Amino acid sequence: MRSAVASAADRPGGSAVESGVTVTYLDHAASTPMRPEAIDVMRPYLDGVYANPSGSHRFARRARQAIDESRDRVADVLGCRPNEVVFTGCGTESDNMAITGAVEAGARLTRSAGGSGRPVAICSAVEHPAVLDVVVHHGGVVVGVDRAGRPLLDAVADAIERTQAAGDHVAVVSAMAVNNEVGSVTDVIELARLVRRLAPDALIHTDAVQAACWLDLRPIVEVVDLLALSAHKFGGPKGAGVLVERGRPVVEPLIRGGGQERGRRSGTHNVGGIVATAEALALTDDERDADRVRIADLRDALVDGLVDSVSDVIETVDRPDKVAGSAHVCIAGVESEALLYLLDEADVCASAASACASGAMERSHVLAAMDVDPRYAVGALRLTLGHASTPSDVDRALDVVPAAVARLRR
User: Is the dihedral of CA 368, 370, 371, 376 positive or negative?
Assistant: First the structure.
């Protein structure tokens, strides 16, 4: 069965086609179109091999074999052992499992050793809510970032030392590899080196949901204990995620019951989603270097065109500090909500880093942590490109965005 929205291979200019209208899609950080190859490998597990892989008959064994082979493929791309790959339902679940599981494991170890003090989670102020809200929920510590949205190492060190001085212990330190709003890249390797020195027993987690398209994850996997992915960010299906848990199981499971995933994540496997995830991740890994160059050229043309044609606009993060697909800008004299409405009316899909709360535009927590001038932050515009982006997408945006800004300023 075909979707109402055409596949990437069918889209004129790489854009979505719905009800005969070509839509310019510049919201790849929110979700990428599924790769046709991922759809093809997924289909047999939707209408053919639909058996429960936990069963004992041959159709169940076929489904279980597909999961095992997919686990091997994912492990190969990430540079870890297959038994370190945990299939989950999404990136949010993976992040929640990492943070909550680490805190609960820390509490269990403290009790078993007859010790005192509480396990503390530490994260940066620009994390996705899937991490940030969980850290706050567990009474953790949130540290500041620099103007590019990268965690301040001195602040991380101070948080660790204050936690230890209070008689508590650091259960987990989390920092996203690539920021989901502004695209800035964190040096996870340098952060890990600091944490290993100051809190050698702490787990290190990275939300790499936005990183798979742009970074070789193997060097990052080498230095962390936990890494989260979400399939629909790199051309896989929604409802499928991965948590890499290095070494023996080190966190408490978030979902209990059936004992799947070696007891680390119970629940019947989404076989088709897992197979498609492995296919999309492998293709992303194969094509990453070429895509990164091509998409960076498109991003540069887009941002340069906006800066040239729209007055009082800033590029939020310098290009060397962010991934190729991020074209985040802040525009003075407009509000994001109104701008996005006009773009949507012109069939251009984009998003913003600010949200409407109680009728008033507020800066996103990311831009607030980066100390972006409120005059610009209220006009945040997140344009993001991906594997299906084309020059025609850029051309269309450069026609629509300046006109929309001019209209709002009038």
Answer: negative
∠ at Cα 208 (7, 5), nearest 5°? Answer: 15
Q: Among 52-61, 231-240, 379-388, which stretch is predicted with the lowest mean pLDDT?
A: 52-61
Q: CB neighbours of 26 closer than 8 A, spacing ≥ 6?
A: 327, 348, 349, 350, 383, 384, 385, 389, 393, 397
When pLDDT is averaged across residues 3-14 and rounded to a whole number, the result is: 39
pTM, 2 dp: 0.92
Would you please indicate which residues are annotated as catalytic (active-site) residues? 356
Phi, psi (deg, nearest 5) at residue 330: -125, 130
Each residue's pLDDT tens digit, 33-52: 999 999 999 999 998 888 99
> Alpha-carbon distance 174 to 311, whole Å?
38
Identify the three-state secondary structure at position 324: coil
Distance CA(278)–CA(203), nearest Å, equals 26
> For 19-145, where are the alpha helices, taking DSSP H only?
36-42, 44-47, 58-78, 91-112, 129-137
The encoded tokens of residue 92 equal: 């949010």
- The DSSP secondary-structure symbol of 262 reads G
Other Cβ atoms within 10 Å of 292 Cβ, number: 16
> d(Cα 357, Cα 117) in Å, to the nearest integer?
38
